[in-house]
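Handout, section B. The chain below has 181 residues.
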Amino acid sequence: MPDTARLHVVTGGPGSGKTTLVEALAAAGVATVPEAGRAIIRDQVTIGGRAVPWEDADLYAELMLARDLAAWRTAREAGRPVVLDRGLVDIAGYLTLIGQEVPNHVRRAVETCRYAPAVFIAPPWREIYGTDEERRQDWAEAVATHDAMVAAYTGAGYALVPLPKAPVAERVAFVRARIEP
């Protein structure tokens, strides 16, 4: 199995249960990588930095790129299946969503740093959607983000596997059945 075929991405809009799923997978013993975007926002808010989506979207995207490239390399070397909360393609989707041009170096990262051919996508799920200090998007933007991720991942040649709108334990079983040998 090619080393990148073990790298499984979970994507979708905010508030669709991605992070909860990835955390539950980690608790079940699956190797995981947390989302870079939320960590960057947390760090930037703590230090009063400007690399947050509502201040400097380009700098925020560059920090996500750096963290996601490092995560991709680490996950690739793990020697076992790894589930990533978002991937490099999400950066291209995010930039497109906010009306920015996707820079060539981001395009090259998407083309060269590949994941398993099937990507899990969490559909918009109004019943569990909520905002917090790091997730400021309203429902309409959450749906638009989902749609941007669909376009970005299919455009990059990935097949999307919709996650069921189901309790976390069922989502965990769904993912594990598809990633474990």
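Note. The radius of gyration is 15 Å. Compare this with the example in section A.
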